[in-house]
Amino acid sequence: MRILIIDLEKKEHTYLEDESLRQLYIGGVGLNTALLYKYIDRTITPFDVRNSLFLTSGALVGTNIPTTSRCEATALSPTGYFGTANSGGKSGLAIKLCNIDSIWIKGKSENPVYALIDEKGVTLKDASHMWGRDTFETVHILKEMEGQDAEVLSIGQAGEAGVQFASIQSDYHHSFGRTGLGAIMGSKKLKALCFIGKGEIQIRDKTLLREITKKIRGRILSSDSFGYTRRYGSMVVSDVYNRLGILPGRNFRQGSFDNWEATRGRRFFEETYKERTLACVSCPIGCLHWSRVKDGEYAGYETCGLEVTFTLEFGAKLDLENIPEIFQCVELCNRLGMDVISTSATIAYIIELFEKGFLKETDIGFRPAFGDFKSIYKLISMIGRQEGTGRLFGHGIKHAVEHFKGSESFACEIKGLEMPVRDPRGRFDTWMLGVLINTRGGDHLRIRTPVDDLKDFERSYEYEPLALTPAELELIDMPQALKDKILGIPPSKVAIPAMTKYSEEYMTLLNSFGLCIRPPVLRTIGPSIMSEAFRAVYGYEMDENELLFAAERIINMAHLFNLDRGLAFQDYHYPDRFYKESEDYIKGKRLPLDHTKIEGMLKAYFVLRGWDETGHIKEETIKRLGID
Amino acid sequence: MSCILACSLFNFNVINPEKSFIKLDKNEERQTFTISVSEGCKSCGECITVCAYKALEWEDENSYN
Question: Parallel, antiparallel, or unpaired: how do β-strands A71-76 and A53-57 relate?
């Protein structure tokens, strides 16, 4: 692997070349984790000059293997723990075309700079004139200066101001959203990375690559979920979330809305706003949309979207009914360079603080309310620009709680990261245990099962039902021994702790190879197919179990990093709201979670990982995985 | 961009958009593009095979549209 090291302090760059890293860490999140684990001092604060930012393309990016566009960014997060985020779009390919796999950004610049990168190296250029500009303006300026084909990763005002959930934006419409990596870039005075490489990617066996590409494409296009995903994108699940009562409505107090499908449902969105389908590099699914508002106050407005996350966050968590208003909020977040989930969660917390009397109108300057676009839009701006009350909330909910003693139960964060999109009381499954276990904190995207479905069932904590048909189950690429162990013989139900462990390893492989995590992929591409692709592109022979072993090592390295940072068993905790309050939804009430039973599932997962009951890794496990 | 990647790989044995016979003129902000096929195209059809959006199709038996 070829890693470009940029030292912002010394204003120089070097290359680190080590092909042995490929089979150990694959690429993407795998390599980033290894570099963070090996080179980042555990005792520093996140904005210390010794923190680094790692950006690595997935191992299969640049090929035509379907959905291989993804790129991973990683650093010690402003949360204090392992920080990592993933993006589609073209940034992964742009890195590869600079004849590198990865970029390691060290040190801090004295003045604002951007890094112009191509296959010959790096030039650090003055970015003073861009500092203070939003990401759309920055991308526009850099494309004017460096060419329209340049791929730009940039931060907005939120990253410059050190907002702890600032994002890195990829061109106009893609984001490395979670864990505040934009703030790390901002602390380094690095406004943007601009890629103009015209290099090339070598392929070991192009005939085999053609075969494997055709095979994967066939599997994805024949998946049951393909047609729906092409049509609705991620919005495909919007209606069913409402019916299940798993929406995070009004800061996780309302699991459904009576008018949801008529105002924020998938068909309403698709028929009213969608103009055409868009896709990332090498993706045949095309889950993205270009949308246009046809009438009303925002008539003529066009944008990329809607994603279901935007709908669940601004539409449910903050109860904005009108899709054009959701579009406006998302664009403002993207321009300021701020994660949509953490921003919505923080504003939901502010509004509930106001409702309960912790904050007064005189503190804020106006009366914030759920469903009120103007106050919500104003709060986004105040947080992103760190103005007025916004300053109290720029360090995330976990820190804000220190100012508002007694608000802990509705401060919706886990391990310092604001909670996303789904209420665990509505459906406690592998995905929801995964939110507690996730190495990056309160997040839903690192543990998703290949057999996930959205049928309702009576909560058991230990199991969720298996609703797939035998044909669908057959198509899932997962080692047979694990299918037998986790789903039973014959397959009947899903053992949640064991599926959580497998799903975490599986997702780590997807994020290392640069594959997408949409259902048409989850249902069709697994470790054995990744193994074939690895052989075609690099010539390496690693079977599915060897790949899963590599993923296990990567996960344990991230966890060791978090343990060194002080992670403790009590941090695996939903806010008290979820253990003490019921949640209303269309069909009645969802009861609070049982704390003891969830602890039991956590411990069962720890045992499967070879950790002790407090979550510390046993010496024998570290030895078995060969971690130094 | 699948067409570009496939074109360079199967005609030049390497993935390199610069070498592809297919070029895209893009507007990133509005997410639009136009495709052009340059001289030298050997009508191998790899680009059509990999495109899932029917952006390219055979014009007659020897050339693309």
Answer: antiparallel
Classify A512 as helix, strand or coil. helix
pLDDT in tens, A387-423: 999 999 999 999 999 999 999 999 999 999 999 989 9
> Residue B16 and residue A140: Cβ atoms within 8 Å?
no
Neighboring chain A residues of B26 at a CB cutoff of 8 Å: 148-149
Q: Does domain A227-418 have CATH number 3.40.640.10?
A: no
Separation in Å, CA of B61 to nearest CA in chain A:
23
* Chain B environment of A302 (Cβ under 8 Å): 30
Cβ pair A368, A354 in contact under 8 A: yes
Residue B32's φ and ψ, nearest 5 degrees, are -125, 160
Domain ranges of chain B: 2-64
Supply φ then ψ for residue A599, to 5 degrees.
-60, -40
- Chain B residues within an 8 Å CB radius of A304: 31
A-B CB pairs within 8 A amount to 72
CATH 3.60.9.10 domain locations along chain A: 2-195
- Identify the burial level of A317 via C-beta atoms within 10 angstroms of its C-beta, where 0-12 means exposed, 13-18 middle and 19 or more buried: buried
**A301 and chain B in contact, CB less than 8 A:** no
Put simply, whether A208 touches B (Cβ < 8 Å) is: no
d(CA A333, CA A169): 10
Contact A55, A103 (CB under 8 A): yes
Which residue on chain B is closest to A288 by alpha carbon?
A: B31
Label residue A22 left, alpha or beta by phi (over 0 means left) and psi (-120 to 50 means alpha).
alpha
Please state whether A245 falls in left (phi above 0), alpha (psi between -120 and 50) or beta: left
**Which position has the token pair 């990375």?**
A193
pLDDT tens digit string along A266-281?
A: 999 999 999 999 999 9
Secondary structure (DSSP) of A471-498 = HHHHHS-S-HHHHHHHHTTTT-EEEHHH
- In whole angstroms, give the CA distance from residue B17 to residue A97: 9
- Residues A103, A105, A106, A111, CA torsion sign: positive
For chain A, give every residue range classified as CATH 1.10.569.10. Answer: 227-418
pLDDT at B65: 44
Residues of B in contact with A279 (CB under 8 A): 52-53
Cα separation, A317 vs B7, in Å, equals 46
Name, in order, each residue with C-beta under 8 angstroms of A305's C-beta and a sequence gap of 6 or more: A173, A289, A291, A327, A330
For residue A389, give both structure tokens.
């009350």
CB A516, CB A285: distance < 8 Å: yes
Q: Which among A200, A221, A285 has the least Cβ separation from residue B15?
A: A200
Q: From CA A265, how far away is CA A103, in angstroms rounded?
A: 40
Give the architecture (CATH level 2) of A2-195.
4-Layer Sandwich (3.60)
**Contact criterion met (CB < 8 Å) for B2 and A290:** no
Cβ contacts of A543 within 8 Å, gap of 6 or more = A528, A531
Q: Which fold has domain A430-625?
A: 1.10.599
When pLDDT is cut at 50, 70 and 90, the band that residue B56 belongs to is confident
Residue A418 near residue A396, CB atoms below 8 Å: yes
- Taking alpha carbons only, the member of A442, A391, A475, A596 closest to residue A215 is A475
Q: What is the ipTM of this complex?
A: 0.89
DSSP state of B14: S
Q: How far apart are CA B36 and CA B4, in angstroms?
A: 11
**Angstrom distance (rounded) from CA A70 to CA A114:** 22
